[in-house]
Design goal:
This protein has 268 residues and is an alpha+beta fold. It is built from 5 helices and 10 strands; from the N terminus they run αααββββββββαββα. The strands form 2 sheets. The chain has a 5-stranded mixed β-sheet with strand order 3-2-1-5-8. The chain has a 5-stranded mixed β-sheet with strand order 4-10-9-6-7. α2 packs antiparallel against α3. The longest helix is centred in the first third of the chain and has 32 residues. It is elongated, with a radius of gyration of 25 Å.
Length: 268
Amino acid sequence: MRQLLGLPELASAHGGEIDQMIVWVHLLMALMFVGWGVLFVYMLLRFRRKRHPVASYTGVRTRASSYTEWSVVVAEAVLLAGFSIPLWSERVDDFPPEDESVIVRVSGEQFAWNVHYAGSDGVFGRTSPALVDPASNPVGLDRSDPAAADDVTTVNQLHLPVDRPAIIHLSSKDVIHSFMLNELRVKQDAIPGLDIPLWFVPTVTTAEMRRRLGDEQFNYEIACAQLCGIGHYRMRGFLTVHPQQEFDAWLAAESTAATEVGGDDFWN
């Protein structure tokens, strides 16, 4: 059914529930489309002018339309209360423990995604809007803060381990953006002045997805799903999902490099 609806490959633990809800919604839409279409054709034939040259002012005396409308209401209520609300509640209320997760800060700007890792010490360094420089310091990291010495920052490049919860703290530096990962069934608006957390568990590494698709150039794309300005079309980043050891090695190497350089010119 996923292929029939044109949905992308699935690469997150919660994505199956999202797809299930999408399938049920489309089935209801298809049923309504066919049902109302059949009714429309029936009406055209049943009440055509040749058969009824004189108008009837009493009309059809039946409650069939009311029953149909109430059936649609009940079906939509089931979709909302049985699928949508529980899924939404899990995403916003049932966050995984932070000590078992990878925590990343992602801030959107026209027209890029800025990514900030705490580094090997697991503590985020101090940031300040006064220190933001789009070219050299997009997150406004204060390298004079000891906790910031090993922090890792990237632009349009997000790295995560497979089969481990990722908690993303999402924000925006200018206008409303929308952080979207199609294959992971993730979409969340980034709103200026707000720190919005979201979480998901990647289940397919980038290398495995490339094998699955037969495309060695494939990358998970971070799209902006909110029209954010004249350069909206080019606001795209990339997610690389690693095996846990590979991710640990990457973070350790980047963190060490940041410490050695001292942050003067080290901005990926």
